[in-house]
Amino acid sequence: MNDGFRCGLVGLAGRPNVGKSTLVNALCGTHVSIVSDKPQTTRRRVAGVVDGEGWQIVLLDLPGYQRPRDGLTGRMQQSVDETLADVDVVLFVLDGTEPPGAGDRFIAERAFASGPPVVIVLNKVDRLSPAAIGGAIEQVATLGSFHSLHPISAATRDGVGALRDDLAALMPAGPQLYPTGAQSGDPIRVRIGELVREAALARTHDEVPHAIAVLIDEVTTPTRRAAGRVGCTLLVDTESQKGILVGKGGTMIRQIGSDARLPIQRLMGGKMMVALRVEARKGWRDDPRVLDQLGP
Q1: 163: domain range?
Q2: CB 131 within 8 A of CB 154
Q3: Is residue 175 situated within a structural domain?
């Protein structure tokens, strides 16, 4: 490792559904974090790795702040608090199309009190006029003493390059934490589970709550002669939710598997077979064994 290398951790804080996962993917230039229009989709840390000349940024995409109501959301909130205490920079993401509300102010108090410099990201400005962007900047600038403020669109990647450069300049001196080009520090099994869950959320829309768990039963790596295989169990709370995910004659679950296959093949570097089953298991969100399988 060359002298003068800089590497650090950046924790993303913000209300659910402000675009943190989309921003992680935009900064990394690859599909790392699950993206869905359902709030509270992210339920665990997802480390996206961004490499540059002489620096590396490790992004920790955190669950949105929320009041714990079961074992799952309790672990999600604990993950936020623990990570903010360890990062080198806090990236506070807000939805530029909405004025800051009580939830944003609550997060601002936690973020600015955590110690590291805070970089504010005003996301979704592609939906605003220049005058509206100026007004939104004035509103979020009152939330706390920030290091810098970036109006961006994670969806179109407008402004993402300048944000990346700003974060790189804030990284402390230290060795890189992941090999160059790693893209993510998450285990392959975790990333596969997130890709399957994303496909399930996209297909079911408002019919099934966001709390679908994907347990990986098996993963085999593809070779030049044979396809690899992924076997997963999708957990839901009720038999009616199971029926929606399975679909008439199994049509829905086959569509979910088909949607997930291409990104899984890109991740695994070869042809993959994807086998999915659905199980209704009441109370899984309070089952420590399930939560341990899903990760921290």
Answers
A1: 6-170
A2: no
A3: no
